[in-house]
Amino acid sequence: MELDDEIARTMKRNNVTLTSTLSVFASWETFARTTTIERFTGDEGKARIVKRKEGAYAAVASAKRAGVRITTGSDFGGGSVRAGHLAWEAELLVAAGLTPREALVAATRAGGELLGDDHAGRIETGMPADLVLVHGDPLSDSRALWRVWAVFQGGTRVA
Fold first, then answer.
1. What is the phi/psi pair of residue 44, to 5°?
2. 70-72 and 131-134: which strand pairing?
3. pLDDT for 16
4. CA–CA separation, 105 and 83 (whole Å)
5. Strand, coil or helix: what is 19?
6. Which helix (H) or strand (E) holds 47?
7. Radius of gyration, alpha carbons of the chain
């Protein structure tokens, strides 16, 4: 979906959130190497995917310029995007123009706010201590989100 700046400003005024699913396009691109399905391998299908991907990246850029809240999504259930792939989405949001910090916020706090969860993405006294620890600094390198070291739920290590 292409999103022009006027639409993005209207989204901002109306407190509309853009939920990105850029990983779907990355998934579709991998299909061209692993399938014979014409819509992924044919010239027309590849061109359609490129056009949609460019529109989606432009939509993220327009939303960012307008100050629209951006969250991550996965469109789980289609293609090779699976649960747990939000690291991929955060990485692609950086490729679309967000900073690693903005992408991390999109994958944590902004999504929680959208769902009415006021503790998601926050490390503060009184919060439930649901944490994912990673190797590296996700505030400067979104790829660090792929390197999960430990998972805590309610302050107890569960993975």
1. -65, -45
2. unpaired
3. 95
4. 18
5. strand
6. helix 43-66
7. 17
153 forms bridges with which residues in the sheet?
156
Distance CA 42, CA 5 (A): 32
Interval 111-118 mean pLDDT: 82
Q: Which residues pair with 148 in a beta bridge?
A: 134
Q: Is the pTM value of this prediction over 0.90?
A: no
Note the pLDDT tens digit of each residue in 49-86.
889 999 999 999 999 999 999 999 877 665 667 667 78
Residues 74/83, Cβ–Cβ less than 8 Å? yes
- The pairs formed by 83-87 with CB atoms below 8 angstroms and a separation of 24 or more are 85/23, 86/145, 87/142, 87/143, 87/145, 87/146
What is the rounded distance in angstroms from the CA atom of residue 106 to the CA atom of residue 109?
Answer: 7
Using CA atoms, how far residue 7 sits from 17, 65, 68, in Å, is 12, 12, 10
Give the CA dihedral 107, 113, 115, 120, nearest 10 degrees. 60
Output the average pLDDT for the chain. Answer: 86
The residue count for the chain: 159
Report the alpha-carbon distance of residue 12 to residue 28 in Å, rounded: 30
Phi-psi category of 106—alpha, beta or left, where left has phi over 0 and alpha has psi -120 to 50?
alpha
The single-letter code of the amino acid at 139 is L
Task: Provide the residue type at 47 as one letter.
Answer: A
DSSP 73: -
